[in-house]
Amino acid sequence: MLFFRRFIVAPLLLLYRPITTATSTQSVGIIDLILSEHQHMRNEYEHFKSIDDTTELDPRVRQWIAYIALHGHKEEIAFYPKVEQYLKDEKKGGHHLIEHGIKEHRQLESELKKLAEQSTVTWKQIRKSVEKLMHHLKEEESDILQPLRSKLDDKLQLELAQQFVDAGQLASDKPHPELSKQPEKAPQENIDIGLAEKHKDL
């Protein structure tokens, strides 16, 4: 366990050091990076419609579930906490927007968990998950990402993108609707459960 804790120190320091000192190797900024992941989620769902064979659909849907779960957890660890301050002048306020985003994550994860727990995925549950997903993507893109594009300069966007990618080393790729909905608690709870799962897999 001591070895494992030493192993994760570097990623943790990268995520929590001041964003103005981060060194980025990313060529795509955080806004476009998140939007590209959103589009992948949409594209995968559209692809599902063309699959008639359940034995092909089932593993593809499970990969999609993991992708969505990981994406949301990376946002809660390395994106939401860093951008709340830049949304304070928005009509709904930065804290409210981030809190609402996390609550929608939990609602989506609840449906994704039900889907993941099915012995064979069903279209009924896929559609329930998609309904929550599409609602969340639309709101996040209009209420958070669009306003941030004009508030974050290119350098900061690249730094945040790197930290978002690095959060993948810490985050869980499983739905966890039981995690906190509070912006103050969600990042650390995400890290704790993600590292516990990764340690279990070692």
Short description:
With 202 residues, this protein is an all-alpha fold. The protein has nine helices and no strands. The termini are close together.
The gyration radius over C-alpha positions equals 17 Å
Total DSSP helices: 9
- The termini sit apart by 11 Å
Specify the biggest β-sheet: none
Q: What proportion of the residues form beta strands (DSSP E)? A: under 5%
Helix share bin: 55-70%
Count the beta strands: 0
Helix/strand order, N-terminal first:
HHHHHHHHH
Mean of residue pLDDT?
A: 89
Unreliable residue stretches:
1-23
Structural class: mainly alpha
SSE arrangement:
Layout (H helix, E strand, L loop, with lengths): L1 H6 L1 H8 L13 H19 L5 H25 L1 H4 L10 H23 L6 H27 L4 H13 L19 H16 L1
What would you say this structure looks like, in words?
With 202 residues, the chain is an all-alpha fold. The chain contains nine helices and no strands. It has helices at 2-7, 9-16, 30-48, 54-78, 80-83, 94-116, 123-149, 154-166, 186-201. The longest helix is centred in the last third of the chain and has 27 residues, at 123-149. It is globular and about 45 Å long. It starts with a helix and ends with a helix.
Task: Fill in the keyword field for this structure.
globular, single chain, 202 residues, mainly alpha
